[in-house]
Amino acid sequence: YAELKHITVEVFELKGGSRHWVHPGTYKNFGEFQHRSLHRRSISPNQDGTWTLETANEIQSQSDGEKQHHPKNRGLIVSAAQVNHVPKLQCFGFVVQEPKTQLRNVDAQKAIALGIAPSPKYRLLKAGFPVMNDDETRQVHPDEVTNTAMAPRKVAFLGDCMGVPRPMAELCRNADLLVHEATMLESDPRAGSATNGHSTAAMAGIFGEFVQAKVLALNHISPALEDGRDIVMEARSAIQGFTQVQLTYDRMEVEIPRGGFVQSW
Fold this sequence. Notes:
The chain is an alpha/beta fold. It has eight helices and eleven strands. The radius of gyration is 23 Å and the shape is globular.
């Protein structure tokens, strides 16, 4: 006996874009899209050529700062933009980023020394807002009792591509982790062919450095390449800066520390 649990599936339909070919399903209501647990959500492009799939709860006022801000409740920013694959076929890349307003850590000893006992006032300090000390004799600025707000973590994932337009490139800029295909080497006779639609390892390396990604993770490697070391070496040879290169594998997990990877290499 098996008990089936209903789940809600939300389908994001990215409307518009620069490709002329349109999938026939765009304007047709297929039967499989009529299930009560399946919701279709149409998203039009922004003026800058990107799509916004999800927004986060940013801290914009003291009222926001007074609330609990557990990461699970604040959400993530999910954006998309087109990448170049083969003619007339629309492909996308996606970027997932933490809220831009990151909470700080309060040094309790410093706060107590300035007359603020542990209390809800710490929430405002964490959110970057000044508060009065407990005896109302002076205002305490967050910089006096907190660390610097950490940068939001960002992950970029590109689909099949042999070129990345500026809207997608700007979304990828300063990503902690950039997942980019490296299907072949520059020596492959298919490299650069518009009908091939895939990137070489060198192309991935050049793009990773251009957007100043901290880690470039190479995927979608051709089965014809038995040794991935050649792919990694070619990508690294195209990079003059600090971007690190990593070959991916199935079920690979990458842990990005709070505040993102540090550019210390």
